[in-house]
Structures are given as C-alpha cells and as structure tokens.
C-alpha cells in the first residue's frame, strides 16, 4: 500500500500553481488537505505524475464577510469552519454540517476546497453549497470564473473545473435573519459517509414556508436541490401535502446501490428526512407521526 | 466491579498480606508502550533486509497458465521474483487435518499457489526488493495469465452434484461432518406443547487487528539457523511448523515475538504468506520482511462465523425446555487452515448449543464445506457466538410462544448451581458453574423490572426499546483434548522459570505470550505475591523460543489459568529454596521464616532478618561463608497442564438494552451488562477490559461487521471504509459484574476470561432487537442487523 512514484511541487503562489496545472493538465493533481487524495494514491487508484501542493498558499485560507457575502478561501479547513464566528452567525447550516464530516483528525487537515473539488456525492459540503446558493470561484489560465453551485457539480467525483483550473474560494450570501435550517444525515457510524443526508434552509412566516431549499446528498451521482420543495412553499402543510411532496421528491431521486443501502432504502430514508425536516422546522410533531406508516 | 466468592477457599500463598492477587495494579509494560518504545515487527530493521510483496490472485478460482517475470526482475531495487513452483524447492506443502476430527479432509496447500489459485487474494508470486514501494512497483509488471474456473461460493449449493468439486482428489466439497444424538429427541418434541423453528444466519467476518500480520525471517546460512520475528500467539507452534516444512530441526529455528498489536485468534494460525517469507529468507540467504497491508489483511487474515444454522426447540407450557435440535452449515474457503483446522468452529457449535440448560435431549448435525473464498478458522470465542445466538434465540422464541418472561424461562431451565459436577448433552464435563448466581446478579445490576416498566411506558409513546438476555458457557484452559490428541504439535502445557538475581530482583521467563491482554502483568502479580517481592522487582520475559520454557502460548483463554498456575508453582519452589538458604544463614528453620516486602522476616513477629539483596549477595559472591554442604538454588522451573478436566468451563450472562427506530432501521445501543464467572480474578481491571473488548467485538458482529462477497467470489469491501468495525461512538457503556467460582484443578483457581464478552454479545443484541420489534410482529434471526435488514423485515422497503 505505497503510492507509485510521483513528482512533487509546492506551489509558491496561485500563479505558480496555475502554471504547473497548465503544463501538466490531467497528469497533475492538486494536494490540499490530502484526506481523499492520499489514500487513493496509496491504494494506487490514482497515480498522478505530479502533485501540486497548495498547502502554503495562505491567501487561500480564511473566512471573511463583506457586503452581505461570506467568502471562504479554498484552503479553509473543516476545523476552521467549525470554529469561525462568521460561519456560526451567517451560515449556521454549514457549521452543523461540518460537524458530521468524518472525525476530528480528518477535519483538522481536510479543506472546503478539497471537498468540493473532490465532489463525492455522499459529502455534506456540496449539498450545503446548493442549499445556500454558493458561488464557486475558480482561477485558470484565462482568469477567474464564477460558477453557481448547481452548475458546479456534474457527477460522481466530477465538477465543472477544467484540469488547468484551481478552486480558490466560495462565496455564500449571508442568510436572512428570519431564516432557519435543518441538517441531518443517516450514517452507520459517527463520521462515516452518509447513507442519505439533508441540508435544508428555510424562511417561515405564519406557520408556512416562505422559502424552502432542500439539499439532499447521497441520493444520486451528485447532491440534489429538490424541486419538490416548492410544493411545500406558501401552503398550509398537511399530511396530504407532505405526502404529495414526498412522492414528487421520489421522482427526482436517482439513488445508487452500495454496501450500505439499496436504492429503495435510500428513497425511503430521503422521505423520512423530508418528513422530519418539515415537521421540525414547522414545529409540527403531528406531521411526523403520520409519516412512519 | 463487584465480586462475590462463591466458594471461599482456605488461606493460600495468594492471600498473603501483600498479595497482588485480586488487585488492579498498573501493567508493567504500560510505560514502554505509552512512550512509543514498544517493539513491533514492523519496527524491526536488520542489515541487508529485503521486503516482500505478494502478487495476489484477482480471481476466486483460476488455473495459472503462465507467469512472466522478466520485466519485473529488471526494475530498480528488485532482488528476486519467485513463483510457487520455484519456492516449492525450499518448503513443503501442508494439509490442515487433525485425527480426532474424524473424516476431516483437506487438500495440500502451498506457500505460494502452484498451477491453480483457489481464492481471490491467494499469492501467486513473491516480489522481493530493497523497499516495499519498489516491490509494489515491480509487482505491477509481473504478468500472470489465468484461465478462470468456476468459483464455488454459495455454501448452500456447495454439496450439490451439479456444483464442481474444488479439489478433485477429495471427491466432493465436504470437509467435515459431525452428527450428535443424545437423549430421546423425537419423543421430547412429541411431548412438547410448542415446537419452534428458525434459521439463524451469521455474517462472515474477521478480527481486525490494529497491527496487521507481520514477519521478519532471517536465515543465517553460517549458523544454519532461522530466526523468525513474528507477531504470533504461539511461538513454539511456529517453531515446530517452520522447521518441519523447511526440513530443519526445531533447534535450528528461533521464534521471537515482542509486542503484538492485537491478535484475537487471527495470529494463532500458520499463513501461507508467512511460510513463504520464511522460505524466501532461506532461498535468498538474507532477512526478508513481510507486513500485510490492510487490503491484504481483509483478503487473507482468517475469516470466521460464516454459518447458516437451522434450530428447533421444544417447550412445555410451564416453560420446561424439552429438546434442542440444530442443523449447521458453514463454508470455510478452499482449505482447512493449518494446523488447527477449520472444523473446530462447527465442532464447537455442536458442543456448545444447549450447554447452559438442563435438558438432555439434543440432536445436531454440522457440515463444513469448501468454497472459493478466503479461508475461515478460529477467531476469538470460536463457535461460541453461533452456539449462543442459536440457543438463546430459540429460548426467547419459545418463551414468546408460551408468553413467558425471558428471565423466567431461563430460571426454570438453567442447570442448578448445586448440580455439579455434571455433563452437557454433548458430553462436556462441567466442574462447577454458577448460572443462577450470575443471572440473579445481572437482574439486580440492570434493575430488570424497572427497565421492563420503562420499556412499556415508552412503547406507548411510540419509542421502541428492547431488552435481550443471553446465557452462555465458555471453553477455557484447554488441555491436550483440543489439538494435541489430534496429532498437532501444539503444546497444552506451559512453563515458567523464576530466578533471583544478584541484587535480589526476580526474573521470570514464561511460555505464555502477550498481545495486550496483560500476560506480563498477571505473571508478575502472581510471582510477586507468592515470593513476597514487590512487582517492580519482577521482570517478565516472554515470546522467545530460545529464552523461555516450552509451552503453548496465549489462546483459548489459557494464559492466566495455565501459565498463571505454572508461575505460581515455580514461585512456590523458589520461595522454599530462598527460605532454605536464609534459614542456613540465619541459623533458623524455614518454617520460622517468611518473605515480605523483599526481605526475609520472622513469621512470629514480622521482624526483618535479612534483605533478599543481601541474601543474593551471599549466595552468588560469598558461598564460601555458607554452612558446609549447602548448594543454594535460587532458580526454579515448573510446568502445568490441567489433567482432571479437558476444559475449564466458565459461564455468564449478558443483557442488552437498545432502541430501534422503525422508520430508519437504525439501532442505538443504550447499555450492556455482563456477569461472568472466570474463577479467581488476578487483576480486576484487566478482566473487565477483556470482557468489554470481547463485548465490543460481539457487538461488531451483531450490527456492523461482514465480509461481503459477490457471487463470483470477490470480496467487495476489503477496506476500512466499507467494512465497518465497531467504533467507540456507537458503543454503549458496558457494566461488568463477577461471580467467583475458582476451579479446583489448580491452586490459583483461575479460569479464562477472553471469550466471554464475545460469546454472548450478539445473542443479547439480537434478542433485544426482536424484543423491540414485538409490536411489529416480525422476527429477525440474521446478523449483522443492518438498517437494510431491519427495514426489510418491517416491510418498509
């Protein structure tokens, strides 16, 4: 279990990293936290010719707030997100989600940029980006691109990034004061990849959803911003309405089979999460009681 | 911890005022390990040492058409690329059978496959290079041409006439069959008010050790001697087998076993890749290191517990259990493992089912079949979890059928505590067990009635919790009946040598081994207590065939009971020798003297007479000052093996309290209790942690662990992300209680404690899940109890 031989370069600037990525293209891999890349290399699932280590590019690390926009540098570690007062105040969903990312040792190394660029469909952070309406900022030889989260994730481990581009930051609009959120995932053990998860953000007015964004993960080849959420907005939610939304959600899902769950089980658990989310956000335990049958 | 002595003994050497027995004292090896100064095989670097990587078959069953090694041999750092055929000039094949398991058959197995591979992961070539990375690079350039053969994977069809026979010379795929019939089973079922049947399915799993299997073999051609550094539980067994198959005398093989990062039975077997490493060292005349990586560990460390067992129980309406019947089927991979064989697990299942209960009516069949998967063999609590899950599952089903409380049906059927000695329907002899005392204590510890009331109240609020109880018996302190009688050169006796050094410290060499369970500690505690010497003056040496007495090692819960008694007896002889000399020096008599706190004292008033250090000085440097004719002997050796009973059975009972979410199928373990009886407890903390560790491995089996094979014999989850080991976050608090019934076979009175936790944990959890599922009128008899299994049983998906 040793990686095959590879070249290693520690980038001294973003420009330097981009130069290397331009020269090597698909033969290079960017190393940030290394929590997915290094095990894959040791298992010889990937054998890049060159590793471009961006670990020293401190300008890519940190959270800042300006004009109603949170900017998170790509090298910001999961542990930083957990501790950030800006995240806690303006994107509390993300804070809740990060607590579910693996274990402390991994959160101390892993980065938000690494997680998003890796695009594991069972990861928490891509779903949060969809729910929070993030813009992903990439820099390449042609300059900077701003990519909406719903256009960034393309498939399993696939994103809109080209091999010459580097993910440098994400921007999140600050959530409105009245907004509330829900995060839950089903995993066999603490820190495991989710079997199914849901990152939701909502505005509630007079017991109804004024806005509801449901970002499901581990329900297909990428995270899903459920369109069926619209069925719950601006209506009095009853068991019948919820059940209709659940059935619409079912049509949107295309779950994969793996060691932990069949597609049928994922569909079932996604509906359980929907029910729990709606019932909790609206403070309506009655909606949950009816749903388990 | 709380404990009661069921059989108070007369005062012995162990009850001395400064005894360490029964006390939680720190392990002597703790500082060394905590400071990172342990010596694991991976840490060993020898001059000219090479690293071997095994190229492993991607197919479950295939003919090897050709192996092309020339490109690999050209690569940087490569020393040799060796095929199975080439290696067979140095090492002979083996067959894993034992004569007392009548009819057991297996085929010759080679260190590296010759002509044919029989499971995915079997080695087809060895690549030896200056570093592991270079060997892995070169292994990618060894080209093997395979012709795929039909893979036999499903144990249920392995014996069908239409299924190909894996080893033609054996005639069929049946490795072993045992049939047992005791009492009047048919009549008992006929007289039962209710008869309940179920099929119990167990997931194949493995004992995931923190440190993988590792070996450094160093053939010194000048000395004609092979030194094997290996993390093993049984150094003398490895010595015997390495010598046998390399054509050497045992005196030409030394096995050194320093620190071992967990073994659980995984490291008590002889693995083909380890044999290949010994042989490669001899072939290449240099040290060779093999360290299994995690993927290799999953593909080659023995698996266990792949059983499907049909069970049947008959019960009277008053709760009397009338009879048990089982039909067990297990698939063990393509070979019976060497030298302990892969029939022992099924044999244990037959031995242990129904064991805690009074009924004498018992019929059993066990069939062991070959298949093209990794080999199965003995893992912690061999056969116990199967037998316990089947027995206790059936008892709960019977109780449910006659609407009797699970504790009550056990009270009415467990063998009475005053009924010993007696025997089980499978012929096991019990010296003295304490089922009722342990059950009573468990019920009290868990506050059973209050828990039942809480369960009922929560159920009304749609919260589904369950209570599961599992009684068990445990095989410990094995005599030669386990392996020796079948012809295996596996010692069942152990030896200890104790001596006083020139400054009055004590050096103790023992043949038992340490893999983290505390063998060093218990040996030092016993020796210190008997001698009257403080523990910090006792140094324990183990794990070296050149420097310890001959013995079995540590497995089957034998270290404390057998090795501990040898230590006690050796220390007693040494104590007598010390007092003899002291009496001569002090012009006293031995009976007037004692040793307390490292000094010889008067028995009468405890007044110090002479320090051990001073006595040692005289003995070693000024023997001329001793009275004429005295030849002091400040060293003693004793060996011990139980002679009366083939095994020292222990017993206990476990309980699980859990919550099941019927929407998601997830189970949350809330609490676990164990009450067990391992006889004399030497170190309460070590025993409790053994029990807890064992429980955790049982809980892993109950909820998480399974080697998932596809129909082509591919192991699909050979990594730590997909194979779920139990983690602390999901583990409940585990309360451990004891009832103490010392065995009278030894002065120490200790029985084993290593298997108890694993034996009953899964049964307790399964019973608790079924208890929680009662309102849903469904029963699950399959583990692991994954959300997928539970949701399916509930009809939710």
The CATH class name of the largest domain in chain A reads Alpha Beta
Q: Identify the most extensive interface between protein chains.
A: A-B, 28 and 32 residues
- Categorize the overall geometry of chain B: globular
The number of domains of chain A is 3
CATH domain class name of the largest domain in chain B: Alpha Beta
CATH architecture verdict of the largest domain in chain A: 2-Layer Sandwich
Described by its quaternary structure, the protein is heterodimer
Radius of gyration of chain A: 20 Å
Residues in helices of chain A, as a percent range:
25-40%
Secondary structure class of chain B reads alpha+beta
Give a short overview.
The mean pLDDT of chain A is 96. Chain A has 293 residues and is α+β, with helices and mostly antiparallel strands.
List keywords for this structure.
heterodimer, A: 293 residues, alpha+beta, Uridine Diphospho-n-acetylenolpyruvylglucosamine Reductase, domain 2, Uridine Diphospho-n-acetylenolpyruvylglucosamine Reductase, domain 3, 3 domains, five-stranded antiparallel sheet, B: 797 residues, Aldehyde Oxidoreductase, domain 4, Aldehyde Oxidoreductase, domain 3, seven-stranded mixed sheet, six-stranded mixed sheet, 24% strand, globular
Write the layout of secondary structure elements.
The complex is a heterodimer of chains A (293) and B (797).
Chain A: E1 7-10, H1 14-24, E2 28-31, H2 37-42, E3 50-53, E4 63-66, E5 69-73, H3 78-83, H4 85-90, H5 92-98, H6 104-109, H7 112-118, H8 124-132, E6 135-140, E7 143-148, H9 149-152, E8 153-155, E9 158-159, E10 166-173, E11 179-186, E12 196-205, E13 208-217, E14 224-225, H10 239-252, H11 263-281, H12 285-291
Chain B: E1 3-5, H1 30-34, E2 50-56, E3 62-68, H2 70-73, E4 78-83, H3 84-87, E5 116-117, E6 123-129, H4 132-139, E7 143-148, E8 174-182, H5 185-191, E9 194-202, E10 205-206, E11 214-220, E12 225-230, H6 235-246, E13 253-256, H7 272-284, E14 288-291, H8 294-300, E15 303-304, E16 307-315, E17 321-331, H9 344-352, E18 362-369, H10 384-401, H11 406-413, E19 422-423, E20 429-430, H12 435-446, H13 448-460, E21 464-476, E22 494-500, E23 506-510, H14 519-531, E24 538-541, H15 559-586, E25 593-596, E26 599-602, E27 608-611, H16 612-621, E28 635-640, E29 648-660, E30 667-677, H17 684-704, E31 733-740, H18 756-772, E32 782-783, H19 787-793
């Amino acid at each position: 279990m040793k990686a095959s031989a590879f070249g290693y370069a520690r980038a001294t600037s973003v420009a330097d990293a981009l130069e290397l990525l331009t020269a090597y293209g698909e033969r290079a891999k960017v190393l940030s936290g290394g929590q997915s890349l290094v095990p894959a290399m040791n298992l010889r699932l990937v054998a890049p010719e060159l590793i471009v280590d961006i670990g020293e590019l401190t300008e890519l690390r940190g959270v800042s707030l300006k004009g109603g926009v949170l900017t998170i540098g790509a090298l910001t570690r999961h542990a930083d997100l957990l501790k950030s007062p800006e995240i806690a105040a303006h994107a509390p969903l993300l804070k809740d989600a990060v607590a579910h990312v693996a274990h402390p040792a991994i959160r101390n190394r892993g980065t938000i940029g690494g997680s998003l660029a890796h695009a594991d469909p069972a990861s928490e952070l891509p779903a949060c980006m969809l729910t929070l309406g993030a813009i992903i900022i990439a820099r390449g030889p042609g300059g900077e691109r701003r990519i909406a989260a719903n256009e960034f994730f393309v498939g399993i481990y696939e994103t809109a990034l080209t091999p010459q581009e580097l993910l440098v930051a994400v921007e999140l609009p600050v959530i409105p004061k009245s907004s509330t959120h829900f995060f839950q995932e089903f995993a066999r053990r603490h820190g495991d990849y989710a079997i199914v998860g849901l990152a939701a953000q909502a505005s509630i007015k007079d017991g109804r959803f004024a806005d509801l964004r449901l970002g499901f993960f581990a329900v297909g080849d990428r995270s899903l911003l459920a369109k069926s959420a619209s069925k719950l907005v601006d209506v009095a939610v009853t068991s019948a309405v919820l059940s209709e939304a659940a059935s619409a959600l079912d049509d949107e899902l295309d779950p994969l089979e793996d060691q932990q769950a069949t597609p049928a089980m994922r569909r079932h658990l996604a509906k359980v999460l929907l029910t729990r989310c709606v019932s909790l956000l609206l403070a309506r335990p009655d909606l949950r009681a009816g749903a388990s049958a | 911890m709380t404990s009661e002595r069921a059989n108070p003994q007369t005062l012995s050497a162990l009850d001395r005022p400064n005894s360490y027995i029964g006390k939680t004292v720190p392990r002597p090896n703790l500082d060394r390990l905590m400071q990172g100064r342990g010596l694991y095989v991976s840490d060993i670097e020898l001059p000219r040492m090479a690293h071997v990587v095994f190229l492993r078959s991607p197919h479950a069953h295939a003919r090897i058409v050709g192996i092309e090694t020339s490109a690999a041999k050209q690569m940087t750092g490569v020393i040799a690329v060796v095929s199975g055929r080439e290696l067979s000039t140095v090492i002979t094949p083996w067959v894993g059978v034992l004569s007392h398991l009548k009819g057991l058959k297996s085929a010759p197995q080679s260190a590296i496959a010759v002509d044919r591979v029989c499971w995915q992961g079997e080695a087809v070539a060895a690549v030896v290079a200056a570093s592991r990375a270079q060997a892995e690079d070169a292994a990618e350039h060894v080209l093997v041409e395979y012709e795929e053969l039909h893979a036999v994977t499903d144990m249920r069809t392995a014996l069908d006439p239409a299924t190909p026979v894996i080893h033609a010379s054996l005639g069929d795929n049946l490795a072993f069959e045992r049939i047992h019939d005791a009492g009047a089973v048919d009549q008992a079922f006929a007289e039962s008010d209710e008869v309940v049947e179920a099929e119990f399915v167990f997931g194949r799993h493995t004992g995931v050790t923190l440190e993988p299997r590792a070996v450094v073999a160093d053939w010194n051609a000048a000395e004609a001697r092979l030194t094997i550094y290996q993390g093993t539980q049984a150094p003398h067994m490895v010595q015997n087998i390495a010598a046998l198959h390399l054509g050497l005398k045992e005196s030409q093989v030394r096995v050194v076993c320093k620190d071992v990062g967990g073994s659980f039975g995984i490291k008590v077997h002889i693995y083909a890749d380890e044999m290949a490493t010994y042989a490669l060292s001899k072939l290449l005349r240099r040290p060779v290191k093999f360290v299994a990586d995690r993927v290799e560990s999953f593909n080659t460390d023995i698996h266990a517990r792949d059983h499907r067992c049909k069970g049947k129980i008959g019960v009277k309406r008053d709760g009397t259990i009338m009879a048990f019947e089982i039909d067990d089927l297990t698939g063990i991979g393509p070979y019976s493992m060497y030298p302990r064989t892969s029939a022992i697990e099924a044999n244990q299942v037959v031995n242990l089912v129904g064991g805690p209960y009074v009924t004498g009516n018992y019929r059993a069949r066990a069939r062991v079949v070959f298949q093209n998967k990794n080999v199965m063999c003995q893992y912690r609590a061999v056969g116990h979890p199967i037998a316990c899950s089947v027995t206790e599952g059936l008892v709960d089903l019977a109780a449910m059928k006659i609407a009797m409380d699970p504790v009550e049906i056990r009270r009415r059927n467990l063998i009475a505590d005053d009924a010993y000695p007696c025997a089980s329907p499978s012929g096991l002899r019990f010296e003295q067990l304490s089922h009722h005392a342990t059950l009573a204590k468990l019920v009290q510890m868990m506050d059973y009635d209050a828990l039942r009331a809480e369960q009922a109240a929560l159920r009304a609020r749609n919260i589904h919790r369950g209570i599961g109880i599992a009684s068990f018996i445990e095989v410990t302190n094995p005599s030669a009946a386990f392996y020796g009688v079948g012809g295996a050169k596996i010692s069942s006796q152990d030896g200890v040598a104790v001596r006083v050094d020139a400054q009055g410290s004590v050096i103790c060499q023992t043949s038992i081994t340490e893999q983290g369970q505390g063998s060093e500690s218990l040996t030092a505690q016993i020796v210190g207590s008997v001698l009257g010497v403080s523990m910090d003056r006792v140094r324990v040496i183990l794990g070296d065939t050149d420097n310890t007495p001959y013995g079995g090692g540590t497995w089957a819960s034998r270290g404390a009971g057998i090795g501990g008694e040898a230590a006690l007896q050796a220390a007693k002889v040494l104590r007598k020798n010390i007092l003899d000399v002291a009496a001569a020096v002090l012009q006293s008599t031995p009976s007037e003297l004692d040793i307390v706190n490292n000094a010889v004292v008067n028995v009468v008033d405890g007044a110090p007479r002479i320090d051990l250090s001073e006595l040692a000085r005289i003995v070693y440097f000024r023997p001329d000052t001793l009275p004429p004719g005295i030849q002091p002997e400040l060293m003693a050796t004793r060996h011990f093996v139980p002679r009366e009973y083939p095994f020292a059975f222990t017993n206990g009972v476990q309980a699980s309290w859990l919550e099941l979410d019927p929407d998601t199928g997830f189970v949350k373990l809330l609490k676990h209790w164990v009450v067990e009886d391992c006889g004399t407890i030497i170190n309460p903390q070590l025993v409790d942690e053994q029990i807890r560790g064992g429980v955790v491995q049982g809980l892993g089996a109950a909820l998480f662990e399974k080697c998932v094979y596809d129909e082509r014999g591919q192991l699909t989850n050979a990594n730590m992300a997909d194979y779920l080991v139990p983690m602390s976050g999901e583990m409940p608090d585990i309360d451990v209680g004891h009832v103490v019934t010392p065995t009278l076979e030894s002065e120490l009175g200790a029985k084993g404690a290593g298997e108890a936790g694993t034996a009953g944990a899964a049964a307790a959890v399964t019973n608790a899940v079924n208890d929680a599922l009662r309102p849903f009128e469904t029963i699950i008899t399959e583990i692991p109890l994954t959300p997928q299994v539970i949701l399916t049983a509930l009809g939710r998906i």
